[in-house]
Design a protein that fits this description.
Belongs to the bactofilin family. This protein has 2 helices and 14 strands, in the order H-E-E-E-E-E-E-E-E-E-E-E-E-E-E-H. It is an alpha/beta fold and 143 residues long. The radius of gyration is 22 Å and the shape is globular.
């Protein structure tokens, strides 16, 4: 009885814990996790998580980031695919290809990227199926 509850609780805690890559640490390769990330070191590779990734001021990612949300204070180069919000702080430097739902940029951030906002595309596609009728005013005839 008690062991079942502990197993369930431990599994829940694993998903809510934050992974951290400290300053001075370099990781080369792909990372897949169910937890959030805080990166102060360097990642040369791809990161995939359903959570949030924070790249601190000393952090660097060179690769692909696929997550729900990201806050960037450091440097990112590569392909950034977020299902929700990208927040760029004033010290952020982003280069590459970006696909997001929402974008927030502070003054001073460097953003040299192609950017597609998925929310905007959805709204445009919804409107594409609707038909709009424009009526012109009838001309007056004077005799």
């Amino acid at each position: 009885m008690f062991s079942d509850q502990k197993k369930g609780k431990m599994a829940t805690e694993t998903y809510t814990q934050q992974n951290s890559i400290a300053q001075g640490t370099t990781i080369t390769g792909d990372i897949i996790s169910d937890g959030d990330f805080r990166i102060e070191g360097s990642v040369q590779g791809n990161i995939k998580t359903p959570g949030k990734v924070v790249i601190g001021k000393t952090g660097l990612i060179n690769g692909t980031l696929n997550s729900a949300n990201a806050d960037i204070e450091g440097k990112f180069s590569g392909k950034l695919m977020l299902s929700d919000t990208l927040s760029l702080k004033s010290s952020a430097h982003v280069e590459g290809e970006v696909v997001v739902g929402k974008l927030a940029v502070e003054t001073g951030a460097t953003f040299n990227a192609t950017c597609v906002m998925k929310g905007t595309l959805k709204e445009l596609n919804k409107g594409a199926g609707q038909q709009t009728t424009i009526k012109r005013p009838e001309k007056e005839h004077t005799a």
